[in-house]
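name: query_chain
kind: protein
chains: 1
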Amino acid sequence: MSIDVAERVGGAFRPSAAEGAAATSLAVEIAGLCKWYGDFQVLKDVDLSVSPGERVVICGRSGSGKSTLIRCINRLERHERGRIVVDGIELTDDLKRIDEVRREVGMVFQSFNLFPHMTILENCSMAPMRVRKMSRPQAEDLARHFLEKVRIPDQAHKYPGQLSGGQQQRAAIARALCMKPRIMLFDEPTSALDPEMIKEVLDTMMALAEEGMTMLCVTHEMGFAQSVANRVVFMDQGRILEESDARTFFTNPRHERSRQFLEQIL
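structure:
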C-alpha cells in the first residue's frame, strides 16, 4: 500500500514504536459515571477500565444502560457526573477534546448509517479525506484495503441499497476502520440483521479481535462473547453488577441476576 497503515493494519493494530508510551496506559477509564434522561437516571456510578488490546463484551437486559454507556465513550451522549478518559484524553464539553477522541474511536451502530446517495467506496473514503486530510487517491486506497479486509471488495462501487444487511454492516465496519482507530465500539451490531447474515458480521469482528484491536461490544450474541471476550460486563438497571473473565461469567456467574439472564438467553 502507498499509505502508512502498516503499523495499524499490516501490524495487526499493534502500536508502533512511537506509540509505545501510549500503549502502557488504559484505553478507556470510566469513574463514577452518571447519566440522566430527565428525571430518569440511566447510568448510576459506573466504573470501568479497559486496557489496550482488551475485548470487553457488555451485556444485560434491554434498558439496562448498555448502549448509553458505550455512546458516552465517544460523547454521542453527554454524561452529567463522573469522569471518562479515552486514550489519555478526558471527555469534557471542550469540542476540541471531543474531536480528538472521535478521531481515535470507531463506532458501529445497530443501524448501518451509511449515506445512501454515496457508493460504498465514497462512504469509506469521505472521513479520511475530511478529518485526516488525505488526498482522494490515498483515502480510496485505504478504503479498498479495508473493504478487502471485511471481504466485500467487489461491493466498492455499489450503493448501500444494493447490498444485503450483512454486507452493509461490514461496510460500516470498514468505514470505521478507515479512520485507523485505536478503539472500536460496537452497539448491538447484529440486532438489525436476519439470522443468516449475523455470522458474516461476527466473523469480521472476530478477525479484528484476533489482530489485537481494543473493542467494547454491546451484544446479545453470547457465542461471540464466549469466543472473543477477555472480559464480560453485566449491567442491570444502570449499574455494573458483575464483571469477570468470559469463562467465569458463563460457567460460574456470581450474581443472581446474571444467572437469570444467562438462563433466559442461552
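note: The beta strands are 28-37, 40-50, 55-60, 81-86, 89-90, 105-108, 183-187, 214-218, 231-236, 239-245.
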